[in-house]
Each structure stands twice: as C-alpha cells, then as structure tokens.
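[job 0412] stage=complex_fold ligand=pyridoxal-5'-phosphate status=START
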Amino acid sequence: MAPAILHAEADASAQNCNAANKQLAQSDSPSLLHRSLLEKPHRVIRGSGSYLYLEDGRKILDACGGAAVAIIGHGNDEVAQAALDQMRQVSYVHTLSYTTDSAENLARSILKSNDSGFDHGLVKAFFVGSGSEANDAAMKCARQHWYEKGQTQRRYFVSRLQGYHGNTIGAMSVSTMVGRKIPYQDILLPHISHVSAADVYHGLRDGETEEEFTQRLIAEIEAEFLRLGPENIISFMAETVVGAALGTMTAPKGYWPAVRNLCNQYGILLHLDEIMCGMGRTGTFFAFEQEGIQPDIVTIGKGLGGGYSPIAAMLINSTIVDTLRKGTSAFNHGQTYQAHPVSCATALAVQTILRRDDLLERVRYLGSMLKHLLSTTFSGCDYVGDIRGRGLFWSLEFMEDKAQKCPFPREFHFGPRVQLAAFNMGVAIYPGSGTIDGLNGDHVIFAPPYTTTEEELEVAVATVKKAYDEVVAAYF
Ligand code: PLP
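[job 0412] stage=complex_fold status=DONE, emitting structure tokens
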C-alpha cells in the first residue's frame, strides 16, 4: 500500500464587487448560472503571468490571484504540458480500485513540504475537488476517528466566529458568513458551537496586552469545552490565519500553542483550515509552521493547484490513521473524482515549480516589500484603520473613525467600492466581507502570485491608493 495517500475505501491504510458593482443589466449568459442573475461578469479571454486579458480589451493586474489561488500566475506552459501528458497517459481511474503515480507523488510531495525542517506530523493526504469538500471530508474523518474508538457520543464541532470554511452544508455550518447562510440556516448541522475570533484589531481591550488577550480567548474556549463536555466534542476547527471573513488576521502571541495544549488536555482533535493561508502564502509551506504546533488534521486547497486544476486536500496525522487502521480500515467517504489523475499531475507541476524556483523565499522577500509599501502608502491615511498580514497575504481595513474604530456605514460598502475602483483602474484585489456579515471588517485583500515582480507590486499598491482616494472623495 502506498505510504502517503489516503485511499477512501481500500486503505488498510465576492462578493464580486457586490452592491457597488451592480450593473443592472441582464447577464449576457443565457445558459450559465452565475452567482448573480443581475451582475454581468467580466469575460476573460487569456491569462498570462500576473495579468488577465478581458474581452473588452482591458488588461488587469491580478494582485489577488483570484481568491489567493494563482500562486504561480496564469498561463504556465509547464503546467499545461503536465496536464496534457497525464491526460494522454491515464485520464481517469476510480480510486476504489486504482491509484496513479500523479496522486501518489503529489501526496508524497505535499507531506514532505516544509523547507524549515519543521516536523508537521501529517502522514496521509486525501484529495478532493474543492476546499469545501476537503473540510466536509475532514469533519467526517474526525467524527469517524471517534466512532471507531467507540466514542459515538461525540457530535460537536467547536469553531470560531468570523471564520469561513466553505459552501457545502457541513463546511457552511461551521462558518459564520451570515449572508451566505440566509436561506439555509435551519437546515445546517445542529451540533456546532462558535467561540470568539482571535481578532487582535477588534478584540483587544484598552490596556490589555496581546498575551492577556490570548489568555482571555483561551479561557473562553476552555469554558466552551467544559459547557459542551469535552467528551462530546469532535474537533476544534479554525483558520490558522483568517482569510476572507476577517482579512488576513494572524492570531495573537501564544494563541496557537495554547489552543494545541487545550485540545491535548481535553482530548479534542485540532483541525486547521489552511485552504487560503497554506501552500506558502504566509512565507512557510504551512502557516502553522510559524506557530510551532502540530495539528491533527489540516485542509489545503487554492494554492495547491494554483488554479490550474480544481483540487484540495485533507491531511491527517498518524493518530487518526492508526485509529482507522485498527477499526474498519477504511475512511467511509469517497467521491468519483477524488485524487483525479489530471488534477494531481497539474498540482504536482505547480508544487514542483514552487520548490524548484524557491518561491517560498520569494514570498518572504516580496512579503516584506508589500508590508513596507502598504505601510508607507497607507499608514497616514485617515480612513485606513489597520494594515495587517503575513507573507504575501495582506489587508487594509477601512474605518470612518480610526481612533474610535468606528466603521463606515455598511450600506456604503467602502471596501468593495475600493475594489471596484481599483479594478476599473486595472488592478484586481479581493474584497472583504466582514461588513456583509454585519460583524467586524470592511477590508480588501492583496494576495498576488508568488511570481509577481517588484514593479507589479508597486503598481498594485499605488493604484489601490488612487482607488481609495476616489472612494474617499465620493463619500465626503
Ligand atoms: N476554507 C477557507 C479558509 C476558504 O478561504 C475557502 C474559500 O474561500 C474555503 C474553505 C472553501 O473552499 P472552496 O471555495 O474551494 O470550496
């Protein structure tokens, strides 16, 4: 049996610019269902490097890689060739009975991928088509872990406010994107509990140190574990660095080691969602490497295939694998396209380029440049409340009164307007959705490809500043 890949049955082992961008014209797509039936999406005819070329002749600098996806930029020939080669060799097999070199090699490559030498403790990978599917698979795998141990009473997932884990029923249940839940609220999973976000910008009280804030957050998690009964909890599930829901928010000092200790103390699995922040985005292959902890389960996506193929993964440690092995010897979950050979070959090509071209080092270098550019350009701005992030994952959060941390009226959609204005000036950034939740956050995100040039970073930041000025002028 292959060492790294987890076989399902046989393992003995944007809000696109939303309100601000409403073009009240009928979509020009008579057959394709877009997210909005009113907004007209931009038709892209070509992607190359850091640029997207639109049908209307515009050239867009992609400073967010879609949603932090396109880590090596667009139109890479090596990746296209790898997909073609795989299609010619083996285009599809069902993983119930078969495996392929592309899937095995990708699993091996991902599981050994820590340039820092950090021992992450993850031993098997399970590949699916999207981040939402990976999180659902992980939630089921965590539940099966306890089931195999005879602890069938464990039903609860403890997650955090202002986290996003996907759109499927399971992943959406643990998310708190209020807007996306509206028609479904009463059919979501019942045994979900949410604790506070590890949100230093909004959550820190006057006079409180980061360490004290961490202690307060940890005490809240512990109280929630005790309220539910730790013996009833399946996992604690959260993004290591919060992406779209909060805007590249890193946890306060000591938070993750303390969460790890708490999960150990109460015997609860720790599942980190690194679908947006993993794959080198924050400067190390996994974001948790910088926190010095070993999770039990990790989910990855987006940068795994760099947008060249729909692929995501659940990664698990040996404790979970051993439980499955000693139990039914099968992960009771499977999908037609899991570990799809072409998706895996494509992702492997992306990961090979990441390593061969030393792109993690480049993320660290460009990340410090982006940090510098953003702080020199925006820290004196009256309505930029916070500039935060790590690696090539940075956000600007807007406030009407930054001293009082008082946001702009939600209806004004300050962040989405900045995003739209920047787009109209030729730069794509990612809009935040906190205000749509009615909770904290009115932000935009920079998450450019790791192959971006220094000059492109400068253009992106300068253009977003012009866009910001335009929106400020429109507001006042
Ligand atoms: N988890 C996080 C942290 C995400 O940012 C996302 C997507 O934005 C998902 C899960 C869901 O991934 P997907 O959209 O590929 O289903």
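Confidence is low (pLDDT under 50) at residues 8-26.
[job 0412] exit 0
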